[in-house]
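Chapter review: from sequence to fold.
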Amino acid sequence: MIWNRKKPYLAKILRSKLLSSKVSNKEVIHYEISLGDSGISYEPGDSLGVVPVNDHDLIGTLLDRLEIAPSIIPLGYNSSIFELLETNFEILTPTNRLIKFINNNIVNKELNDAILSDDRNLLIKFKYGKDILDFMNMDKNLKIDVNLFLTLLKQLQHRAYSITSSNLANPNEVHLTVSTQRWQSNSRNYGGVCSTFLADKCSKGSKIKIFLIPNKIFKLPSDQSKPIIMIGPGTGIAPFISFLQEREFLKSPGKNWLFFGAQTKKNDFIYKNEILNFQNSNILHKLDTAFSRDQFEKIYVQDKMYEAGFEIFQWIEEGAILYVCGDAIKMAKDVDLKLQKIIEEQLKCTSQESFEYIKKLKKEKRYLLDVY
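The token string follows.
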């Protein structure tokens, strides 16, 4: 059986564990999921799709705002409005259709100016932290027909998480590392659709819908003697735990170097014991950590990379493969800039020559990114 987004496998959660401390600014949880009789087989670098269920409290608040009973079946549907909002539609992030509808039917100068502006960042800034209910409540006198409301939504999508385990080392199980997204604004509490579903609604024995998302590029080298450099701050460490588990299981001779970063060592050093065990077992040959808030001047993984620039360059010249996993908006760009600077200084070349060097690494699939 091939499981996919339209036909996911119903899997059981075996166990979960809080990785960050209870006083951390971030809540990071490790989940272990049974693959049961699914036949799912994965490789390090793959991701797992998780199909969430929407928050019942938010559904109730939306139905109150729409002034409609949960049991009502909208025209053209076979399910109640509650069931539709629970599993069929995205009810957190507003679509552009919904935003335009709201703007066309209420008077809100700030929203209108953001939509009409040539500066796209204005609308992005206006939308930041707001959900569908916030837009509906910009004018509480606005009435929205339920069938029209559904046309303004998009289908509820799965969320993809990098797999944190080696299938060889953990037969019939798959592990995930998930940062629970929570925020507050205007006396309201918000939560990421899937991360809070897992954290708040799922426990040992809970069933969740999953399917495999293979990654044909972000893979360990077939030549197990090749050295690898892994750069993964925060939950970006997830695939690298699977890489190290796999290399340990296969007794791969290649050297392994990990760069990990988080806010504080005391509260945010996730997988610390596992990483130290990899070191003690001589699986992890080098470890560089950057805890940005443990000192006055913030230090990030790219800063640690730059400090080790000479040795990084030596590893690259010896055939090392670089992997970057995590935030695409800032971290990955900063890592790329530091890498260009390292190459420029080590080769004593121009910025253009450094750029071409890195371009060649990418072409040879020796500089691989899994960013989001």
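Two observations follow directly from the output. The mean pLDDT is 97. DSSP finds 15 helices and 13 strands in the chain.
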